[in-house]
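call fold(seq) -> tokens
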Amino acid sequence: MAGLAWWIAVFLSPAMRGATLGSLDPVLVAAFDVPLFVIGSGVAAFGVRAAAAVATGWTVLVAIALAAYATVTTEAGWGVLIMLAAAGCSVIALLFVVRGRVPTELIVQGPFAFRPAADRRGTAGHVAATMGQLILFWGFFLLVIPSFIGWLEQRWLVALPFPSAAVVTGLVLLALASSLGIASAVTMSSTGNGTPLPSAMPNRLVIAGPYRWVRNPMAVAGISQGVAVGMVLGSWLVIAYAVLGSLLWNYAVRPHEEADLESRFGAGFQRYRDSVRCWVPRIGRD
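ret:
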């Protein structure tokens, strides 16, 4: 239905056509997209797996091709965002049609599987490893990826104006969130005999420091850092990237992490989970 509505808007509105297709011939594109995506999605809604696979494959292909086109020509940037959203939703829908659910457990397999850290490192070793992880992950997720997203946002001509106070506000938020992240990481590595990395998790349940107030202070810090970087760069796409990352972590990773903690620490973790909130800190708790 969304695809059909978009095509109607494309043929009725020159502004919509230019923003989402650029100089591409809408008739030619519609000749392929309407049967493969619009009609294919409609058939897939009745549980036809082949239609779901065709619609998803076509949508992913179009999203990639349109992204390349927009990057080269600076046209159809808004169309890229629409197609990326359609591709993501189509993949999720295909998983529901084929498997009846999204297999989030695949995220925590292999090198990302939950495993306790080796005891031989000692406290100093775990703290040092944790600091190395922070430098690596922060550099990649808060510098490299946001810089690339910001460049694409400008290249695709989808940037939106930010208030003048956004940069200062973002810098303050970044400093506070980074302080929270460092404090949480040091607390986990020094008292938990492990690191935040799933493959080297703490050997003891950590409920000290920031963990007394909120169960996931490092996640709160990381998401806040992402939003702050988006404000500093003046990029709404970077902020959206941070929000999407928070949703992925909360709904795909956190349930598996907490199941692992419950299996290893039993009633202790259950009491902790019941008394301390996941995201919103309880101010004034001892």
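The two ends are 52 Å apart (CA to CA).
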